Amino acid sequence: MPVLTSNAAKRIKELGATEKAGATFRVSVDGGGCSGFKYRFDFDVKQNADDTVIETDGVKALIDAVSLGFLGNSHIDYVETLGESYFSVKNPNAKASCGCGNSFAV
Description:
The protein has helices spanning 6-16, 65-71; strands at residues 3-4, 24-31, 37-44, 52-56, 59-63, 75-80, 85-90, 96-97, 103-105. The chain is of the alpha+beta class. The protein has a single domain (3-105), classed as HesB-like domain (Hypothetical Protein Aq_1857, Chain: A).
């Protein structure tokens, strides 16, 4: 089961404050990117019947059934450095990843 870190939960909560009422953070995997698949992070007002809900520090995230198969036991984090800030996925299922950090292969 994927895990949200406390840093990710904190940032999701901050971002969610400007979203529509009832919107929940969604993590998904789409085809594309340099390595074949890419991570997508957005907010969604609809929860589907096959969504898995993960929660950390009272902050929820949705993952659809297909994406869950790719994410497995991933850790979803929020990283802040001097020059950039971004959501990061440490995915044990990824066989290769792109330098951008958002694209991977299985």
